[in-house]
Amino acid sequence: QVQLVESGGGLVQPGGSLRLSCAASGSIFSLYTMGWYRRAPGKQRELVAAISSGGSTNYADSVKDRFTISRDNAKNTVYLQMNNLKPEDTAVYYCNAKRFTNFWGQGTQVTVSS
Does 112 score more than 90 pLDDT? Predict the structure, then answer.
């Protein structure tokens, strides 16, 4: 079992930045692929970014060059640095841990609005 707790969401103006954090516990963090997903109102959940146990990353086209995912295995934490935020980035962001199965955090709200 893996427990995931997200933090760092909030209200930000367009063009602003936020950093999300996801603290993991309960298993060997370094073995898991970690990801950030989001669900906007009226839309399906989508992958935003992921980072493998080896450090390889992939991003949704809509966030490339604006968002950066990283992990600190010593702190059992994965981060999502979000820059140049747009109103369409408004969503609940979920942390995901995947190895043989998926584990999810409770989500954190990100609202981009002036």
Answer: yes
CA atoms within 13 A of residue 92's CA, in its CB half-sphere: 13
Q: Write the CB contacts of 65 (distance below 8 Å, at least 6 apart in sequence).
A: none
Instruction: Kindly report, residue by residue over 1-60, the tens digit of the pLDDT.
Output: 899 999 999 999 999 999 999 999 977 888 999 999 999 999 999 999 999 999 999 999
Contact 36, 18 (CB under 8 A): no
Q: Is the dihedral of CA 78, 104, 89, 108 positive or negative?
A: negative
d(CA 92, CA 37): 8
CA R_g for the chain? 13
Q: Write out the H or E segment, with its range, that includes residue 37.
A: strand 33-39
Residue 57 three-state SS: strand
Q: Which of 111, 112, 98 is nearest to 15 (CA)?
A: 112
Looking only at the bridges linking them, the beta strands covering 67-72 and 77-82 are: antiparallel
